[in-house]
Amino acid sequence: MNIRNLIKRIRSSLHLQKELPTEAVLGFLRILEGVREEEISCSEIYARLDEYVEREVSKKDAAQLMPLIREHLDICPECCEEYEALLNVLNENAKS
Length: 96
Ligand SMILES: [Zn+2]
Description:
Layout: H1 3-13, H2 22-36, H3 42-57, H4 62-65, H5 67-75, H6 77-95
Helix pairs in contact: 3-6, 5-6
């Protein structure tokens, strides 16, 4: 996303004569992003990933129990990578 263009668009759509302080625009953008953003941050996912993967390996329905984590894993490649690595480790352990 091109922030400069977006700021220009916001300015013109609001018919502002004066410069809109960049801080105000950035604050506005942060609010917009916050609406779309997932409810759990990556660090929270990391903290709960062990539990999630353990549930998944033990055939409990992890995605049902912790849907926010499943949702985050679907949209966040970094956490998904971590999740798959953890899953591999636990599966290996389960075999031996
Ligand atoms: Zn993440």
